[in-house]
Amino acid sequence: MTLAADTRFMALALSLGRRAEGAVWPNPAVGCLIVKNGRIVGRGWTQPSGRPHAETVALAQAGALAKGATAYVTLEPCAHTGKTPPCAQALIDADVARVMVACADSDPRVSGQGVAMLQAAGIVVEVGLLEREARAAHIGFFSKVDLGRPMVTLKLASSFDGRIATASGESQWITAAPARRLVHFMRAQHDAVLVGGGTARKDDPSLNVRDLGISRQPARIVVSRHLDLPLISKLAQTAADIPLILCHTPSADPQLVKTWQQLGATMIPCASHAGQLDPAELLQKLGHHGLTRVFCEGGGGLAASLLRAGLVDRLVGFTAGLVIGADGLPSTGPLGLSRLGNAPRFQLQSTRAIGPDILHIWDRT
After folding, report:
1. 3-state class (DSSP) for residue 139
2. Mean pLDDT of the chain
3. Interstrand relation of 31-36 and 70-73 (parallel, antiparallel or unpaired)
């Protein structure tokens, strides 16, 4: 097999893995191809709720044709028995001849052991093809394993001068329908959507994915110190149907905690400092809950707290061609900066027009 062919097949495996984003946490969204004599005989990606794994799906499709074939896997095959048997053993049992692994798994239950199992069985293993792309694809999983928290995407939709509403609070709609539709697709690529209590009170959002033909829904997370959220709201009405996580202080009214639990919400108490929940502890607890990718949609106070703490991994900006002025509501709250050198810095990854608006995506440097 030539390097060009290997690269093409691994790129296809990565595209398969992306189909699982947002639906498989706490597991990674892995893609796998089984190729024999230059022909794809099996393909798979991690299934909803994280199993079966991509390798299992692809091998089942390949059947007997897997013998002597090459497997392309976007993450090192697991080597431990959890809720499913080890994927490394499944590849061995299928008698594949070669396994191409995009990147190693840093989970201590797997790290290096999957590759070692395969090599011990006489299978040729190569690691590192399209590694940079694979690490980017699995950024949420690696963040949870290595840092104990999910990766955070902060979405800001604003006017040209960085405002999200007029002085009177009018905000619908600054960006046009194509941008708003794309936001729903981005929600679907994440495990959960995160907003502050002020946004939940003001907008009464559903925080779900609509009009895309997608049945699965991301979890909804609301940060509300005192749980002073309306009990007659879209979130309350759907708490039993779509996962709802409420993060609050330990001193929140026990009766409100009990009421929200009865509605179906998961309650996560977090420490509070300077009038805000500790963002680092908040994300650690969300990571412990299994979340790997969180899509934060504001408001300004929550966005500022995450930026101040250095916890934003990706910025997604939608900029509209209108100017609101200094009396409008800014997209983030105060960061307390006195020097530009202390400002959070991000590196531009891409930019393109979305209808009449501009989408720009930045990753933390």
Report:
1. helix
2. 94
3. antiparallel
Q: Which residues of 119-152 are buried (b: 16+ CB within 10 A; e: fewer)?
A: eeeebebebebbeeebbebbbbbbbbbeeebbbb
Is 55 considered catalytic here? yes
Catalytic residue among 55, 76, 131, 170: 55
Predicted confidence at residue 144, as pLDDT, reads 96
**pLDDT at residue 290, as a whole number:** 95
The token pair at 18 is: 């992306």
Query: CA–CA distance from 188 to each of 48, 150, 179 (Å)?
Result: 13, 16, 15
Contact 78, 51 (CB under 8 A): no
> What is the distance between the alpha carbons of residues 252 and 267, in angstroms, rounded to a whole number?
11
Host H or E run for residue 36:
strand 31-36
Tokens encoding 27: 């597991």
Quick: pLDDT tens for 340-349: 989 999 999 9
Collapsed DSSP state (helix, strand, coil) of residue 175: coil
Residue-by-residue DSSP string for 236-248: HHHTTTS-EEEEE
Strand, coil or helix: 76? coil
First to last CA, the chain: 36
Mean pLDDT value of segment 293-321? 94
Residue 251 CB neighbours (<10 A): 10
What number is the average pLDDT over the span 115-127? 96
> Tokens 């062919």 identify what position?
5
- State the pLDDT at residue 289: 95
Distance of alpha carbon 105 from alpha carbon 78, whole angstroms: 8
Residue 197 scores a pLDDT above 90: yes
Q: Is the pLDDT of residue 51 over 90?
A: no
Q: Is the pTM of this model over 0.85?
A: yes
Report the amino acid identity of residue 187.
R
Please state the rounded mean pLDDT for residues 227-251: 95
- How far, CA to CA in Å, does 99 sit from each of 13, 91, 94, 102? 13, 9, 12, 10
